[in-house]
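Exam review. A common question shows you a sequence with its structure tokens and asks you to describe the fold in words. Practice with the pair below. Do the first one on your own.
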Amino acid sequence: MAFDPASDGFMLIAAALVFIMTPGLALFYGGMVNKKNAVAMMMQNFFSAGWTTVIWVLFGFTLAFAPDIAGIIGNCNYVALFNLTPNTLYSNGAISMYTFMIYQLMFAIITPVLMTGAFADRMRFKGFIVFLTLWLFLIYFPFAHWLWGGGFLAQWGVEDFAGGIVVHVSAGFGALASVFFLGKRLHPKPGNHSVPLIVLGTALLWFGWFGFNAGSALRVDADTNVAFINTMIAASFAAITWMFWDYAVGKKWSSIGFMTGSIAGLATITPAAGFVNPQAAMIIGITAALVSHWVVDFVHKKGWDDALDVWGVHGIGGFTGIILLGIFGSAAINGANGLIYGGVDFFGKQIAADLFTAAYAFGVTYGILWLVNKITPLRVPEEEEEAGLDATEYDVPAYFDE
């Protein structure tokens, strides 16, 4: 396939769409926390845009996408982006490696900050910087290589279209590890402090997700179209299902339920977006809402302080999506046949990869947190948690109370 300027231009637009998801997440999470921690939440998200870029162009891209070493990690060919030019083509021949590099950077930026919602209100920023750095090297770069860079999971035949494992399982199960390591907040937030911020954040996430999923086709063709359509379908079916569940239980229409349901649907369709038909996307959206809602309720009943339901929405969403891809995947669309088309082996591989990566993400994240806590205390003191992180760690609060 010859270089395609249309595909290359589309991929640059898709990269910008994925980037806007990070400020979208900052608004989404920022509206959910107590107002005295809004700046802290937003800064953790925005900081990744700068810091992860530095790490990515120096080391991350080569570890994730340079030629494979034993199925585990990439070699050092692309350190500091050496041995790349604008005319170096990605393996599909349609887009520049520069374009592929910047597109994949946007995934690396947003993935670790998905976890910030789990440990909201209680992690020091200094500790967060060290944690973010180690997490990228020990979890995100390896995961990206194993699935998308020619590593052992890709060689084995596991599929993940846009990040069910690489993004959502890695961050979601890492978030669960942080919940157990850091423990409960001493002063939990009194509800969501700004529903308009949550709505705006959801809008930016949903909008950006079209670049997240459709862009993962890495060219413009029928697969791009399928991924785009499936993204909209799954998000909508999940949002409506979640909202009606909330109404059935509480007899009130839940705006937050609608927003949360849409994110669950988006996370769950992500690994399957370009591999299933629209009818499967409808089922995936409904299943996403039912499974994630049940898990979120379970976490609340157990008293685990996953502040913004990261594990239930992202971790379980991505985990469920990988399994559903193993069921509904279709060779007629793009990938391997799932269980309903006779793909028993493929279904088994998806489950095995899901379990392995979830366990790895949880265990290694817990180990990183333990190590970082030895280097610099991760949790803020009780008096700082009471005052709010905006007042104790940042130079200006989100709001000036009269």
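Now try the second one, then compare your answer with the model answer below.
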Amino acid sequence: MNKVKVVFTDDQKSYKLPSGTRLLIRRCCHAVLEEESFPVSAEISVRIVDNETIRTLNKEYREIDRATDVLSFPLCENGEYDVNPATEVCLLGDIVISAERAYEQAQEYGHSFQREIAFLTVHSMLHLLGYDHEVSGIEAVHMREKEEKVLTELGLKRNGSYYMDGE
């Protein structure tokens, strides 16, 4: 497996992240790239924010004026990723996660905050690699299967059913 660099930033003050959160996010990024047999070294930026910040970003970039759980900003155009010329590492893009929404959803779905953060990271990583659950129902199911496979391999199998709310 090639190297994976995860640039992690916690830009929120609402929740103290549990110890091991950074490592979990790194493991998730690595697991997705391994599962997808990504052929080169990669860099991903992961930023943890509050609901206000993610709402602002969602409005600015998606024209949706509400907080969401995660946003993905892929650096891929026409199948080509940006490459850092100094390191020759593929820049996959940015992941922005709302800690507030992650805590809310963990309670709503009856699982741990760690499982929710892992799910959001894996979900967003698949978006960075070109998957899009909004294209079709079949694509959504395919993406969900990949998410659950990676999470199960990480020891974070879901403990109940999930539903798709049109995200």
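Model answer, second protein: Confidence is low (pLDDT under 50) at residues 160-167. The chain is about 45% helix and 20% strand. Full marks require stating both points clearly.
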